[in-house]
User: What shape does this take?
Amino acid sequence: MAASASARKPGSPRTEPVGFISYSFDAADFRVKLSKLYLLPQWHGCGTGRHMLQHLQARATQLGAREVRLQVNKQNTRAIRAYQRAGFSVLEAVVTDIGGGFVMDDFIMVLQVREENG
Assistant: This one.
């Protein structure tokens, strides 16, 4: 599932795409995985990312998910802070070999949407 975020520049009559979010729902695990969340740099700090995450949480609730998970690079401190402000917490640190001597050094973060038996 994917959605784009649109916003209107002050004084402009048109809305324009300013971001993109992509996620999937695993019905067997009652889990939504946030795959991608991109926001144009000039829209950082304006609340648009927060609204995108609120949309994701509402959608996860509608789908019956217990949690939302995401993976973020450990060096992406700005995104980590934004996710923490939205209620996500670090579940674990993972290092994944992607070949050619490169690794992904990430945090897996989780947001509880509803209780296990709720």
